[in-house]
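user: can you give me the structure for this one chain? tokens are fine.
assistant: on it. calling the predictor now.
[tool input]
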Amino acid sequence: MTCCGPNRRRLLAALAAAAAAPLVLPGSARAQENSLRATDLEVVTITDTSAIITWTTLAADAAGAPVPVDAGTEIRLAPADSTGPARTVAVAADRTPYHYAQIDNLEPGRRYRFEAWSDGVRAVPAPELVTHLPGAPECAGEFTTLVAPPGRLLRTLALCNDVHMGEETSGIIAAGQPPGVRQEPGLPPYPEVMLAALLDDLRRPDRGADHLILAGDLTAEATPEQTRTIRNRLDAWGIEGRDWIAARGNHDRPHTGADYAVCPAVTADHYDCWGESFLPPAQFSEHRLGGLRLIGLDTTELDGSGGSIGPEQFDRLRESLNRDPDRPTVVFGHHPVTAESGLTNLAGPNFVLNRTDALTLQQLYRSTPGVFFHHAGHTHRNRRTRPDIPLRVEFLEVGALKEYPGGYTLLRLFEGGYMVNFYKTRTPDARRWSTRSRAEYLGLMPEYTLGSTADRNHVVLGDLSGLS
């Protein structure tokens, strides 16, 4: 088995080969009758004291096709160096096809072996590369908890992107291909399901997010209704600038057409409904959160999906960074920055921030020691990429909220550094939709978007003791 991860060429080849074929959704393949399968095993989250494991149970229907089926949820766990049998540590009260098991009270820096079970059937990973990489916990049956940075936990940011409020079909790239996935009849629209699950999650004690950062694509097409809907949802949850802060994505850009003419005009034929409820185009934003400087960038272009930063935004950014270069700073914007991101995302180099602006931005970071983290969305995947020049800045793309893997990242700031953890949302409807949307990209969605265990969960040491 190759250990090389999926790349754009492989994905495009698969899409081209299958463009004329009917979409294969879960439940359409043959399966043996009277069988229960526990599949799609993923060790999604590993913190210093907890781990979250998800999987799906399927059984044959009357025609022999696999369909989601309710089953029990059980995790058996033991230290990896122990000789005794693993003991049951987590059992869910509800029976479900969409299993989500959180294991708490683990020891930092400890290696554990685990088993996930449903009604006597052990869960296994799906036949995909991302969970079969060397050392992948899904195949090894083991994981190692992180060791948190030294010092007190100071503040927790929830990093989120790509809500696509108002969208009805998920997973289409261009010209109606590949075939997309729609919500099941009778269930709420999936962007509303996923946003509600996010907002519910963040204030639970085991998440404890202080602030929500939304890095663009809050809407599907920035219509007046879509923009008002998500603004109302966020306002009902918290206060802008204190509880949540948003930047524009390419789907939120000014649009043309009669449906948009009720919104402010930014050109002779472009109308900005998103800006009416949030920020005007090309708007730089800056907030102070207990000593942390949080900078939001509008990286969108008037027409198209690529990214750029205008001279006025660069001037304001340069002024802010030069005024206080050592202040701990997190920057967020929709488009990824690095050349590596351009070369590895499905849509290619023109999909990310243009090279000139990306290098200018990174050169600003090089002269600003306080900048330590840059959050982007747009690619719908979990991935850390290398800067183009020597920098001590992490560039992290976070998986989309609106579809598989269907979650957000917690950035926990300690006096001695930070810890990054990706979480799937966990309400029943959110788990159901996340599983259904695995079928996107002709079933290759997990390969492209889940990311490696280390991309999703890691610790970086550094001095953040000046924060409060």
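assistant: here you go. Residues 1-8, 10-32 have pLDDT under 50 and may be disordered. Residues 411 and 420 are 5 Å apart (CA to CA).
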